[in-house]
Amino acid sequence: MIICDYNLYFSQIQNMKSKITAALALCFCVFAFDVFAQKSKEKPNPEIVKMLKEISAKRIESDIRKLVSFGTRNTNSEQDNPTRGIGAARDWIFAEFNKISADCGNCLAVEKQTYLQEAMLPPRGRVPVAINVTNVVATLRGTTDPNRIYVVSGHYDSMCQNPADAKCDAPGANDDASGSAAVIEMARVMSKRKFDATIIFMTVAGEEQGLLGATHFAKQAVEKKMNVEAMFTNDIIGGVTTFKNSRDRNSVRVFSEGVPSNETEQEATTRRGTGGENDSASRQLARFIKETADLYSPKFAVMMIYRRDRYLRGGDHIPFVERGFAAVRFTEPNEDYDHQHQNVGIREGKFYGDTPEFVDFDYVANVTRVNAASLANLALAPARPKNVGMVTARLGNDTEIKWDASAESDIAGYEIVWRDTVSPVWTNSQSVGNVTNFVMKAMSKDNYFFGVRAVDKAGNKSPVSFPRPVR
Ligand SMILES: [Zn+2]
Fold it and tell me: Looking at the whole model, is its pTM more than 0.85?
């Protein structure tokens, strides 16, 4: 804002020309300070910058090669062979998480979450005989708000052409040793730090058989009433077709649904009356990730895809959004189907197979950095505001929004954000202080979309909550 009320201070300056010059100088000064204040709010957190530098493409490469060395990680493969099959991969990840935990004074709770999966017969079912499905999970407990949870996941199982084939080689370097290695590397660098909220580093099995491990976790989260505020799945983040000098090497897709998968018929009726098909909690999460990436990795872009997943396809975030949790998927910009779900070998002079030489490890490290920066910002910031309501008691061109006060002790206040209805991202914000309702004068809710976010005393901002109509 530019403040130009100079009369009081400059009334003693008699010369008109001097008066104008002084006034202009003051205006410029206030304007410049204001711009600086805006900018300074958007400065990266130096501790997060330092953490991102610690993320190592070399260690990620080594982890991907290790996972590939188990020959196959098909969920139906051997579980008690120490060198081949999904059991060997499971035990190696478990040991790796334990090593990481030992390095941070046992700061991680490491566990195998196992359930017995009944047979699901082909062609649709991909589990010929009943098997144990195991998620390997490491939890970094939050310091001040441990019940608020962020989950970052990759699937450590793999497949060749036939998802029920337990014997064929299925290196799965990109799909999805890349995502699993990203999660393990995040556990390494993030466990050395403290966050307000809890972060769960998870690698799941049974993705290729129908999102089995992720579904098990999401069901348990509902049963245990876990407050999962956000979930990321990293699946196929190896950049196989994005090798050096490709412009695609500098971006990652983040898929988010617009209309919630668990929307009720009543909520759909409300949405048809108010708009908001572009404003689910998952979409707000994607916008938060994009804003974070713009700040922390300006040369590596988040390409928001306004879709739940790729065309007619699925991933481990889906069991979460189906249960009402905000969740998104990270995937490279262009998948290479010669190196995905293939039997390894040369056919008609062409090599097929998901092997490590088609993975761009520096690229995986960059995707890992976008994840880690977003997770760190989420887990340091307050929770997104709850019970955010658009007050509709009477018609008018002012817009009144109300919300519940944050329970967090370091809350500084709230911001109202808004955008034109055709804008994909939030374009404006206004700090409104530590209040629980606010009226935007002469700004009609018919003409803009509004949201609210919480800000703590250190300047950390939550994702945006989109209001629902209330009387
Ligand atoms: Zn996958």
Answer: yes
